[in-house]
Specification:
Elements lengths: L1 H37 L10 H13 L13 H13 L10 H6 L6 H5 L1
Length: 115
Protein backbone atom coordinates (compact mmCIF):
# COMPACT_ATOMS: atom_id res chain seq x y z
CA UNK A 1 0.00 0.00 0.00
CA UNK A 2 2.85 2.32 0.84
CA UNK A 3 4.46 1.79 -2.57
CA UNK A 4 1.17 2.63 -4.23
CA UNK A 5 0.94 5.94 -2.33
CA UNK A 6 4.56 6.78 -3.10
CA UNK A 7 3.91 6.17 -6.81
CA UNK A 8 0.55 8.00 -7.01
CA UNK A 9 1.42 11.06 -4.91
CA UNK A 10 4.05 12.51 -7.32
CA UNK A 11 1.69 11.87 -10.22
CA UNK A 12 -1.09 13.81 -8.52
CA UNK A 13 1.28 16.67 -7.72
CA UNK A 14 2.45 16.84 -11.34
CA UNK A 15 -1.13 16.96 -12.61
CA UNK A 16 -2.09 19.73 -10.18
CA UNK A 17 0.93 21.84 -11.25
CA UNK A 18 0.01 21.35 -14.90
CA UNK A 19 -3.59 22.44 -14.28
CA UNK A 20 -2.44 25.47 -12.33
CA UNK A 21 -0.01 26.50 -15.07
CA UNK A 22 -2.71 26.12 -17.72
CA UNK A 23 -5.15 28.30 -15.77
CA UNK A 24 -2.49 30.96 -15.27
CA UNK A 25 -1.71 31.06 -19.01
CA UNK A 26 -5.36 31.44 -19.99
CA UNK A 27 -5.85 34.17 -17.39
CA UNK A 28 -2.86 36.06 -18.76
CA UNK A 29 -4.08 35.77 -22.34
CA UNK A 30 -7.54 36.99 -21.35
CA UNK A 31 -6.10 39.99 -19.53
CA UNK A 32 -3.92 40.77 -22.56
CA UNK A 33 -6.96 40.60 -24.85
CA UNK A 34 -8.91 42.93 -22.57
CA UNK A 35 -6.04 45.42 -22.49
CA UNK A 36 -5.86 45.46 -26.29
CA UNK A 37 -9.60 45.86 -26.74
CA UNK A 38 -9.84 48.78 -24.31
CA UNK A 39 -6.96 50.67 -25.88
CA UNK A 40 -8.21 53.90 -27.45
CA UNK A 41 -7.94 54.45 -31.19
CA UNK A 42 -6.44 57.60 -32.54
CA UNK A 43 -8.45 60.12 -34.52
CA UNK A 44 -10.35 58.68 -37.48
CA UNK A 45 -9.66 60.20 -40.90
CA UNK A 46 -12.90 61.30 -42.57
CA UNK A 47 -13.48 62.98 -45.90
CA UNK A 48 -16.00 65.81 -45.93
CA UNK A 49 -18.99 66.10 -48.28
CA UNK A 50 -17.21 68.40 -50.74
CA UNK A 51 -14.22 66.06 -50.96
CA UNK A 52 -16.53 63.10 -51.62
CA UNK A 53 -18.27 65.06 -54.41
CA UNK A 54 -14.90 65.87 -55.98
CA UNK A 55 -13.84 62.23 -55.73
CA UNK A 56 -17.11 61.10 -57.32
CA UNK A 57 -16.49 63.49 -60.22
CA UNK A 58 -12.98 62.09 -60.73
CA UNK A 59 -14.22 58.51 -60.49
CA UNK A 60 -16.93 59.33 -63.05
CA UNK A 61 -14.34 60.81 -65.46
CA UNK A 62 -12.28 57.63 -65.13
CA UNK A 63 -15.38 55.41 -65.61
CA UNK A 64 -15.10 53.91 -62.13
CA UNK A 65 -18.42 55.42 -60.98
CA UNK A 66 -21.71 56.00 -62.81
CA UNK A 67 -23.83 57.61 -60.10
CA UNK A 68 -24.57 61.21 -59.19
CA UNK A 69 -22.26 63.47 -57.20
CA UNK A 70 -24.17 63.22 -53.93
CA UNK A 71 -21.35 63.74 -51.47
CA UNK A 72 -22.27 60.46 -49.77
CA UNK A 73 -19.86 57.57 -49.53
CA UNK A 74 -22.34 54.93 -50.71
CA UNK A 75 -21.66 51.38 -51.92
CA UNK A 76 -21.26 52.44 -55.57
CA UNK A 77 -18.72 55.11 -54.59
CA UNK A 78 -16.79 52.62 -52.45
CA UNK A 79 -16.70 50.14 -55.34
CA UNK A 80 -15.40 52.88 -57.64
CA UNK A 81 -12.79 53.85 -55.06
CA UNK A 82 -11.57 50.25 -54.84
CA UNK A 83 -11.15 50.15 -58.63
CA UNK A 84 -9.36 53.52 -58.61
CA UNK A 85 -7.06 52.52 -55.76
CA UNK A 86 -6.15 49.27 -57.47
CA UNK A 87 -5.49 51.04 -60.78
CA UNK A 88 -3.27 53.63 -59.07
CA UNK A 89 -1.33 51.13 -56.95
CA UNK A 90 -2.78 52.37 -53.66
CA UNK A 91 -3.86 50.26 -50.72
CA UNK A 92 -7.35 49.03 -51.68
CA UNK A 93 -9.70 50.11 -48.89
CA UNK A 94 -12.78 51.52 -50.61
CA UNK A 95 -12.52 54.62 -48.43
CA UNK A 96 -11.36 58.15 -49.05
CA UNK A 97 -8.23 58.05 -46.96
CA UNK A 98 -5.43 60.60 -47.00
CA UNK A 99 -3.38 58.78 -49.65
CA UNK A 100 -6.32 58.46 -52.02
CA UNK A 101 -7.30 62.12 -51.64
CA UNK A 102 -3.71 63.21 -52.26
CA UNK A 103 -3.45 60.98 -55.35
CA UNK A 104 -6.67 62.56 -56.67
CA UNK A 105 -5.21 66.05 -55.98
CA UNK A 106 -8.12 66.89 -53.67
CA UNK A 107 -7.22 69.53 -51.09
CA UNK A 108 -7.00 68.31 -47.50
CA UNK A 109 -8.28 70.29 -44.53
CA UNK A 110 -5.76 71.46 -41.93
CA UNK A 111 -7.06 68.81 -39.52
CA UNK A 112 -6.59 66.10 -42.16
CA UNK A 113 -3.09 67.30 -42.95
CA UNK A 114 -2.15 66.91 -39.28
CA UNK A 115 -3.21 63.23 -39.22
Amino acid sequence: MRRFLVAVLPLLLALSFTATAHNTDSTLSLSTQNANSTRKRGPVFRANKDQIKQAQAILKQRNFYAGDQTGKLDDATRAGLRQYQQAEGLKVTGTLNKGTLEKMNITLTDKQKAM
